[in-house]
Structure formats: C-alpha cells, structure tokens
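BACKBONE GEOMETRY TOKENS
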Amino acid sequence: MSEEYEHKELRRRQEKLESEIKEIENRLKELRVRGEEREKLIGKFWKERAVYITIIVGSISILLTIIIMITR
C-alpha cells in the first residue's frame, strides 16, 4: 500500500513540476517577444531622432544662408 502511495505522490509531484516547466517556458517566450518588440522600438526611435536632427540642421543651414544674403 505504501509503495502505491509513494508512486502516486511521485507522479503528482512530477506532473506539478512539468506544469511549472511549461509555465516557465511560456514566460520565457513572452520575454523574448517583448525583447524583440523593444529592440524594434529602439531602432525606430533612433531613426526618428536622426530625421529630426537632419531637419533641424537643414533649417539652421537655410536660416544662415538667408541671414548671410541679407547682410551682404
């Protein structure tokens, strides 16, 4: 009788551990997806920042050109 009980108890523990492993694997997948999304957003952020800097530099160049033309 005790062997059966031990067997059932071990089986129950094994099933519990397997479910925990699956849960951890799912969390890991979610973290990977979040990491990939974060990398995409960071890349997009830097691209937008580069565009804004280009626009600002271009605007300053145009303003300087106009100022130089007016002062001459």
Notes: The mean pLDDT is 93. The radius of gyration is 31 Å. The CA atoms of residues 19 and 25 lie 10 Å apart. The chain has one domain: 1-72.
